Amino acid sequence: MSTNPRVLMFGWEFPPHISGGLGTACFGLTKGLAKLGTNIIFVVPKAFGDEDQEAVRLMNASEQEIQFKDVFYQEFWKQMTYLEVGVHLVPYLSPQEYERLTDARLHDRTDINESVFAQRFEFSGKYGKDLYQEVSRYAVVAAKIAREQTFDIIHAHDWLTYPAAIAAKAVSGKPIVAHVHATEFDRSGEHVNQRIYDIEREGMHAADCVVCVSNLTRDIVINRYGVPADKVMTVHNGVVQQEQDREQYERILPEKIVTFLGRITFQKGPDYFVEAAHKVMQRDPSVRFVMAGSGDMLYKIIRRVAQLRLSSRFHFAGFLREQEVDRMFAISDVYVMPSVSEPFGISPLEAMRSNVPVIISKQSGVAEVLNHAIKVDFWDIDAMADSIYGLLHYQGISEMFKQMGKSEVENLQWDHAAQKIYRIYEGILGA
Questions:
Q1: Fold assignment, 246-409
Q2: Which of 95, 107, 186, 190 sits most deeply, having the most CB atoms within 10 A of its CB?
Q3: Quick one: pLDDT band at residue 130, thresholds 50, 70, 90?
């Protein structure tokens, strides 16, 4: 490889329009790759115009015109199946978090007519209604882009973009890097959605290299998806380094604040956070707990908080955006991530960057790279409660985790992850 690699990258979201860690990871990784001279075309279903394009050339799939009479696109459409999902869905969520899916409707594989295609596919850029149809159409647009653009390698983030990567490879013959930020086993436990699993598996096996965000995820990819171990690599996530002044945020309340920030879903373990909060408040009723996020378990959690009579000390903040997240961390005394299954988990790094001591579940990928975080089993609410109480009441312990944690997280940079990805590109392209 005589020149820097040119990458056609597919993602479903890009800051500031994100729903979780996937968009944040794409942003951090692309900035790191850009520093190494990598040229990146980043394709999203819908661009809003205010994205940071310093490190990438953002391409809006909704602006791509498809000539529906062209046999080239008809052939791709014949291979696509789609399923209309009239409910809210994000890439990490499980089938248990939305209505039971109807049987897949295969598009007629012989009768292609003008009603199938518009001149442009208008993507919502979200994870809601008709998601599978959007995934299929996104793949057709990917074929068009691959036909017209010059690039050396394809990089796809998570299952929503794997069909697009496969279509791009079919057109260009270029190799694929499939980036796994979460698997269907993380989202659903053992009750996997077979259709999503099949898309994931097809994408992983079509790829020339599969990049996983943790060794935990790598083991799942090898053992559950049957991907040869020699083509599965681990590249841990990083965190965007930025200086934050905690003093600029005024503390409205004098009490100690313990924070949960994430999707309120089975995977994130919000119910264990509530039970641990109950135990802490039995020992210190002055503590306040904040749950920031949204998800299918929200109302169940609200009911449980009411049953435990915690409502006056337990606050639901809703989904927080970037500056709101910074402010939340700035006024927090402890951050807890009790995930049942977490492929990585960027939020603890963001908390540590803000001088907040963290408690994380042992069932998380980030536990592989952090030494100065308290690690507990997600189900061990006694250990979780004891850890929270200790960090709140023993200043020496809290200060140690703050100082050592901030120092540790400064070394977990996206630049390091980007260097590993760059070497993977070189290996595939024969540098």
A1: Rossmann fold (3.40.50)
A2: 186
A3: low
